[in-house]
């Protein structure tokens, strides 16, 4: 049993009793970082927010508490994490303010332009196809919507090339914020440019 395999089963793609233990550890050690990432994107009270790879559901609960008039959705590929997060957010789920599903980043079960913000913490580095996952996030974000990708040092996510990878998926204004050894990449889905009015365009061409 290698350390990489153990870390993957505990935190990356939690499975079985190791995944259950990993979720417990994450829930009790990453709260400060989670609140920092959420604070960076400026979520409004009525926003629709999606978390990809929600783990034990700590960020989901924080979002549900701080976005009382909004809607929080989540996708995670681990059955253990869906169970833990559902238990942690049982009341908000019953109230219809939170929806958690088993699924993959590269196949998000939501229509185009469904969310104001999408965030993912310590997740992208274990997606089967990160490029496809970023394109899916771009699809479900509203024009002008915000993306936050947070990584603790333990995730071992390289910073080099990450901004370019996000730009290739169609995002703009990508930049990295740091908190000691941890970091978060922020970006935005561009709004469509407005066409010039025909009369104004003709006047401009006439000089």
UniProtKB/TrEMBL annotation:
Methyltransferase type domain sequence ranges: 50-148
Superkingdom of origin: Bacteria
Pfam family, one: Methyltransf_11
InterPro entries to which the protein is assigned, alphabetical: Methyltransf_11, Methyltransf_Superfamily, SAM-dependent_MTases_sf
Name the UniProt record assigns to this protein: Methyltransf_11 domain-containing protein
Gene source species: Candidatus Methylocalor cossyra
């Amino acid at each position: 049993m290698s350390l990489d395999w153990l870390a993957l089963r505990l935190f990356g793609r939690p499975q079985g009793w190791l995944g259950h233990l990993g979720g417990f550890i994450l829930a009790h050690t990453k709260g400060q970082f989670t609140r920092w990432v959420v604070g960076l994107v400026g979520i409004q009270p009525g926003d629709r927010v999606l978390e990809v790879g929600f783990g034990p559901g700590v960020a989901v609960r924080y979002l549900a508490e701080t976005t009382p008039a909004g809607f929080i959705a989540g996708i995670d590929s681990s059955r253990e994490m869906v169970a833990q997060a559902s238990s942690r957010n049982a009341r908000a789920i019953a109230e219809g303010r939170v929806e958690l599903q088993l699924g993959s980043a590269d196949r998000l079960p939501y229509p185009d332009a469904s969310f104001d913000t999408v965030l993912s913490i310590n997740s992208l580095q274990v997606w089967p196809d990160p490029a496809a996952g970023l394109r899916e996030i771009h699809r479900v974000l509203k024009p002008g919507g915000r993306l936050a990708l947070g990584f603790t040092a333990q995730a071992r996510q390289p910073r080099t090339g990450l901004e370019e990878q996000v730009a290739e998926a169609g995002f703009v204004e990508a930049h990295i914020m740091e908190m000691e050894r941890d970091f978060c990449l922020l970006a935005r889905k561009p709004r469509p440019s407005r066409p010039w009015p025909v009369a104004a365009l003709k006047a401009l061409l006439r000089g």
